[in-house]
Amino acid sequence: MAQSHHRRTVIxxxxxxxxxxxxxxxxxxxxxxxxxxARYLRATGRDVIYTTGTDDSQTYVVASARRLGTTxxxxxxxxxxxxxxxxxxxxxxxxxxxxxxxxxxxTVLDFVGALHAEGRFRQRTVRFPYSEKTGEFLMExxxxxxxxxxxxxxxxxxxxxxxxxxxxxxLINPRSTVxxxxxxxxxxxxxxxxxxxxxxxxxxxxxxxxxxxxxxHTRQLVSEVLARPLPDFPITYPTAWGIPAPFPETPGxxxxxxxxxxxxxxxxxxxxxxxxxxxxxxxDALWLSEQSIELVYFLGFDNVxxxxxTHLALLLAHQGRYITPAAIVSxxxxxxxxxxxxxxxxxxxxxxxxxxEVPRDLVRFYLALxxxxxxxxxxxxAALEKITNERLTVPWxxxxxxxxxxxxxxxxxxxxxxxxDEGRRRATTMIRRxxxxxxxxxxSLTRAADxxxxxxxxxxERSVQLANVLDGNAPTLLGDLFLEARxxxxxxxxxxxxxxxxxxxxxxxxxxxxxxxxxxxxxxxxMLPLLSSTVSAG
Length: 538
What we know:
Strand order of the largest sheet: 3-2-1-15-16
Oligomer: single chain
Strand content: 15-25%
Helix content: 40-55%
């Protein structure tokens, strides 16, 4: 496999909105995908940063705080700590979970200030839904209605169902999300926008070069968006929540939270560097074109338009100063018992609660196996228990017991066992197959988890056959099985993090995810750890 001569990879998960903790639907999307990919890169000797933070400026924070009877500031602060804790509890090894602080705000203002100074923005007078009762313009998370593109229920700014934008007063039958009974009107406001149509040629060229890396639904959305005039992207909003816009044309307005995506990610990257003991020259230093990092986004389909069009256009507007993403890996929605996760309706499973009841390796395995990579998939507690027990825990523990018994019967404890050419070939083949699921050109958590199941089933069958072999071939057969079991454990390590950590604590075992680790003539047998089974609630 590829080693450390690769350029540094920066992996970005979209900052979660701090209006609550992370539920299983969030984790099954970009956060697990990012974590597994980052762990894989580290295991193959590559330099990687996996980072995120929180998206405090979103009006969803305001809407949620009002419904909960608290302040946006208090909700964002509590949620920041809860989210960071949940990521750690579920084994998401984020290199730096950035705070929303003066450094964050300064990075955003520097990013947009440079574009303003270069004349990249335009003034536009547009109409917004308006609450006569509260005297507020409504946008993004403060307003809902029917999507003008697909007619589904949508929030302002973007439709989660079809992925298309709806700016300003484009929602059909707009309603306040805080007070649905409030009768809305519309009012004009003069804001600053980024005219996306001016970046059509560059956006088209980017996707002409990178479309092969996109998942089908994302490719379809990009094609649909580029097939029509590109809408203006609002840079400022007439609302009080967010980072105050410093532009003389828009007094009293704030920066659109979606504008923060790229400078926020730059700040998260710099924060992660500091957590790793580095000291970047500036918060955007690693994103400069001359650094030549490989930038990878993992995100939900509902984020594709912003990250793949508006954010990309903002990077391009800096005229070559910054790198652009090497890959955008999207996922679809994850449902709970075949219904959409809903915090307000109590239809939710919180990530921290689940790993408190079920060993987190089993949670990670099940979320990987059922990951919503190309279509909506479903979380079921009953299915989690059934699938992890039948396909993972029981066969793995049976393999561990049989290998230990065979080792004792042969009197080979502590003695190196020979490995055959065929054993080395099988181990190498295993590594190659896992590589095909972990590398970006074929990245798939579902196929990686399914490969764990398939290889484990194969090894369990061979361990049963071993029990009937007592002749001179037994040491080599056992040596081959130990090599392949070690290889499977190394390949599964990005998903089964606790099992891998338990194995790594053995002085006879070192996880190395490479073909070179398979090229051995003998293997020292070691004590394989057992997997804990699920624990039913109640």
